[in-house]
């Protein structure tokens, strides 16, 4: 089977969760103190050996990402035990492996519930182009959480939250290195020196730092909001938020929204735009976007019309971000979005 055919399986996932929030759950020890059952009805991406977690069956994550070559080079140590936990819990995630693991997976049966997918690193890719798992992706695989973030971008999730991504190992000094251990939520741990020499480790951490910075830049360019909801830890590339606060509401429950309301709001906004009342139109579009969150039937054109309003109000940088979001999440409008993006980029050049 050709690589293009393997990756094509990821095409239907492009923007599948556009405008919905998602959680990337690492294996750090901090999740022992956080209530992961809150993730039961959320879009969730888990990594590596997460299915050892006691709440894994309840959460039933939709996506499972593996990046460490040890999972297919020494499967008896890592992958087979992780797979057994997943099979015992009768979960049915889409499991993502790098293309380098394809020969191994051809000889391995993950069971009837696991939906196997692959991704491929491409050195020619740039953060200036949209990420797409049905082709090659940025060659950023220093940590499985980094790959998971790229998958969240492909899925169109926005905002994106990290949980259990402690990354304490990023701050280890040379003096601490010999006795420092890489900890997880499960009991087993290994010393850093069991993985790499100090110089190798220092280089790996520098590369990881660079890749996180690059994906932070990608998020800014393409209008994604990424936050770290981990309790503690050293992953400081993204703004911090309190995990529990994401599941609280400061206002009483409102009656169910009329499903036609977002459509009416955008129609009213379009009328105001024709009258050149862009400020009021922008307010209506923001209301429509708030009412369009997590809907099965999404209202197309919100991002594009918001970009037009922002452009007319002179808020060019914001307009460019929303125009790029429209290009990502509403490919049917590419003929309008692309010229607008080029025009806005010209203003900013």
UniProtKB/TrEMBL annotation:
Q: Which Gene3D superfamilies match?
A: Alpha-2,3-sialyltransferase, Tetratricopeptide repeat domain
UniProt superkingdom: Bacteria
Q: Which residues form the 6-hydroxymethylpterin diphosphokinase MptE-like domain?
A: 12-169
Tell me the protein's name.
Answer: 6-hydroxymethylpterin diphosphokinase MptE-like domain-containing protein
| Organism expressing this protein natively | Citrifermentans bemidjiense (strain ATCC BAA-1014 / DSM 16622 / JCM 12645 / Bem)
């Amino acid at each position: 089977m050709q690589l293009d055919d393997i990756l094509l399986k990821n095409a239907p996932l492009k923007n599948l969760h556009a405008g919905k929030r998602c959680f990337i759950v690492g294996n750090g020890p901090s999740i022992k103190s956080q209530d992961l059952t809150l993730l039961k009805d959320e879009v969730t991406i888990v990594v590596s050996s997460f299915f050892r977690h006691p709440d894994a069956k309840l959460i039933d994550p939709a996506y499972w990402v593996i990046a460490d070559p040890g999972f297919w080079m020494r499967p008896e140590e890592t992958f087979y035990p992780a797979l057994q936990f997943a099979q015992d819990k009768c979960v049915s995630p889409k499991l993502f492996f790098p293309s380098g693991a394809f020969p191994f997976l051809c000889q391995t049966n993950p069971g009837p519930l696991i939906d196997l997918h692959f991704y491929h690193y491409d050195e020619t890719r740039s953060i200036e182009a949209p990420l797409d798992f049905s082709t090659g992706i940025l060659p950023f695989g220093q940590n499985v959480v980094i790959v998971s973030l790229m998958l969240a971008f492909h899925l169109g999730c926005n905002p994106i939250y990290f949980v259990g991504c402690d990354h304490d190992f990023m701050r280890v000094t040379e003096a601490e290195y010999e006795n420092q251990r890489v900890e997880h939520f499960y009991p087993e741990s290994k010393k850093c020196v069991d993985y790499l020499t100090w110089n190798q480790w220092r280089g790996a951490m520098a590369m990881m730092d660079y890749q996180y910075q690059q994906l932070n830049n990608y998020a800014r360019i393409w209008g994604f909001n990424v936050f770290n909801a981990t309790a503690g830890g050293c992953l400081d590339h993204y703004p911090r938020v309190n995990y529990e606060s994401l599941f609280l509401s400061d206002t009483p429950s409102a009656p169910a929204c009329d499903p036609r309301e977002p459509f009416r709001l955008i129609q009213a906004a379009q009328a105001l735009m024709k009258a050149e009342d862009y400020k009021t139109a922008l307010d209506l579009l923001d209301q429509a976007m708030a009412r369009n969150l997590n809907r099965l039937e999404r209202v197309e054109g919100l991002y594009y019309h918001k970009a037009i309003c922002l452009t007319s109000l002179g808020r060019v940088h914001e307009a460019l971000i929303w125009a790029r979001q429209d290009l990502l999440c509403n490919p049917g409008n590419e003929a309008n979005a692309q010229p607008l993006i080029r025009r806005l980029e010209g203003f900013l050049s």
